[in-house]
């Protein structure tokens, strides 16, 4: 079976959009359906570690993923990225843990804790606090289960703490911890469909001329100067011809 090449053509019958756990693209998908009903959007759930390879191999047209974490895995080949928003980092702990006494904390407050670092690494932490638990769970979901079992605590982007919420666990913001950014990853060159989706997430209006053909021709320097003078006359900043006719001394008879 041959994988469709999304790098070379923009006439694909569908627009395949990958997204990672914790990301909710439903609003953007709804706007896409309104603006481009002729091109169905197909959502593809992927882990962060699989996004670069999926983009590089042409299995998806674009991925909403965590950056720069996604680029540490696989080969995205020639690609582009845009950061959309930054996520707060939280520590997930058992409900009766002493850390729940505060509303927020710093990395220094976690110095004596046992930490779980899952292999899917949703968050890059160069200087890891506390002591690492020797066992590394496969996924963030597995790590959350171990937090509930009292094995250790876990640093994650807040959206993942919400996704894996349990009644016996709570999370608290860590105000000086490294953060993760959610962004777009897509292959180069940028296709028309990719540009359309970028416009949606950036709040571009449907009538925006960016990326469209048939834009208004550029005006000459003479036309620009005339338009500028007309605008200034309309604002009363310089006297126009009509103003000169009605001003000054009356004509002699």
TrEMBL record:
Belongs to the LysR transcriptional regulatory family. Keywords: Activator, DNA-binding, Transcription, Transcription regulation. This is LysR family transcriptional regulator. Residues 202-253 are annotated as: Disordered. The keyword Lipid biosynthesis does not apply. It comes from the Bacteria. It comes from Gordonia lacunae. Residues 212-235 have a biased composition (Basic and acidic residues). Residues 242-253 have a biased composition (Basic residues).
């Amino acid at each position: 079976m041959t994988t469709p090449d999304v790098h070379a053509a923009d006439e694909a019958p569908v627009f395949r959009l990958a997204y990672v756990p914790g990301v909710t693209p439903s609003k953007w998908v709804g706007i896409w359906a309104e603006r481009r009903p002729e091109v169905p959007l197909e959502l593809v759930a992927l882990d962060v570690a699989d996004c670069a390879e999926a983009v590089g191999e042409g299995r998806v047209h674009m991925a909403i993923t965590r950056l720069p974490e996604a680029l540490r895995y696989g080969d995205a080949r020639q690609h582009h990225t845009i950061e959309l928003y930054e996520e707060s980092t939280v520590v997930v702990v058992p409900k009766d843990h002493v850390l729940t006494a505060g509303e927020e904390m710093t990395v220094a407050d976690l110095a004596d804790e046992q930490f779980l670092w899952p292999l899917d690494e949703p968050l890059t932490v160069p200087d890891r606090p506390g002591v690492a638990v020797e066992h590394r769970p496969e996924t963030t979901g597995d790590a959350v289960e171990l937090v509930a079992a009292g094995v250790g605590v876990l640093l994650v982007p807040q959206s993942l703490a919400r996704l894996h919420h349990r009644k016996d666990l709570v999370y608290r913001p860590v105000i000086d911890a490294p953060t993760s950014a959610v962004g777009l990853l897509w292959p180069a060159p940028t296709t028309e469909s990719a540009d359309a989706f970028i416009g949606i997430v950036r709040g571009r209006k449907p009538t925006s001329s960016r990326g469209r053909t048939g834009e208004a021709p550029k005006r000459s320097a003479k036309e620009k100067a005339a338009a500028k003078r007309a605008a200034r006359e309309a604002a009363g900043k310089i006297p126009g011809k009509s103003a000169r006719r009605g001003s000054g001394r009356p004509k002699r008879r």
